[in-house]
Amino acid sequence: MQKFDPEDFKLRYPQFKGLANDYLTSQYQLALILGATVIGVFCNKDVQYLISLLVLAHILTVFAQSGGSGTAIGRVASVTEGSISASFNTAVKAGDEFWAQSQFGLIILQLLRNRGGATYVAHPADLGGYLNYSGYYGC
């Protein structure tokens, strides 16, 4: 996978251009940890890098929401005009709640659905007439 470049990230996701490069780099490390199972489903290193940037954008968006300055995500569930109130709803499967908190997470969920999850691939040694359980999931 490519080395993280905060300036490249800011070009791809201009809504985060005001964040310091050091902060983005540290949050990228968090994105790699939190998104490891998602990123690892894709075999191509360039795709893994792009997915890792999506995970970072998701994390930054969720953090902004928790501070009260984020953007609402989902369908409007209810609206009140007097004293202004609104609630949003995103229908998600159990276990997908974390990713459903931002538009970037919803893209990740869709990519995973399109991918179909992890794929078991036999290790070449397994093809030699004996089984040694050295296969792996993913790529």
Question: Could you walk me through the main structural features you see in this protein, from its secondary elements to its overall organization?
Answer:
It is a single chain. This protein is an alpha+beta fold and 139 residues long. It has one domain (6-137). It is built from five helices and four strands. The strands form two sheets. The protein has a two-stranded antiparallel sheet with strand order 1-2. α2 packs across α4 (45-66) and α4 (45-66) packs antiparallel against α5 (103-115). The longest helix is centred in the middle third of the chain and has 22 residues, at 45-66. It is flat and about 50 Å long.
The share of residues in helices is 40-55%
**Class by SSE composition:** alpha+beta
Strand content: 5-15%
Can you list the strand order of the major beta sheet? 1-2
User: What's the order of the H and E elements?
Assistant: HHHHEEHEE
